[in-house]
């Protein structure tokens, strides 16, 4: 892993590092309005999907399977949205895009975790325009990451 890249990551954007594979970093996203939302980022600098090599694509497929399986087992998620939204990185100067994916579990029914009820704010619709955010205290985030890790086999 490129240590320089990890030092450049803005924790406010990606969140807390949960785990990593050979090519990918998995973060618990700062906004948890959809319980288990994560960011999956390539370990090396890359701006475009077309820049991924075969090994990175192959491992990304495994990450997708493992993430979906883990969150389904951990919280009984109904389905999952994946998005690679790079546009905002071009608002900074100089632009510094980095290939990453937003992993957003979706829930038809409310989910309880550690005494807190999580309701999917717009099940069946995009979350892209929802302005409300849910930032959990660090102790809850640590519990959440540990719970996800119980089911994640990377």
Element layout with pairings:
Elements: H1 3-8, H2 11-14, E1 16-20, E2 24-28, E3 38-42, H3 54-75, E4 79-83, E5 100-106, E6 111-113, E7 116-118, H4 138-151
Antiparallel strand pairs: 1-2, 2-3, 3-5, 4-5, 6-7
Helix pairs in contact: 3-4
Task: Write up this protein.
- By secondary structure, this protein is α+β, with helices and mostly antiparallel strands.
- The chain has a single domain (3-151), classed as 2-Layer Sandwich (HIT family, subunit A).
- It has helices at residues 3-8, 11-14, 54-75, 138-151, and strands at 16-20, 24-28, 38-42, 79-83, 100-106, 111-113, 116-118.
- The strands form 2 sheets. Strands 1-2-3-5-4 form a 5-stranded antiparallel β-sheet, covered by helices on one side.
- β6 (111-113) and β7 (116-118) form a beta hairpin.
- α3 (54-75) packs across α4 (138-151).
- It is globular, with a radius of gyration of 15 Å.
Strand content: 15-25%
Number of helices: 4
Largest sheet: 5 strands, antiparallel
CA-based gyration radius: 15 Å
The end-to-end span amounts to: 16 Å
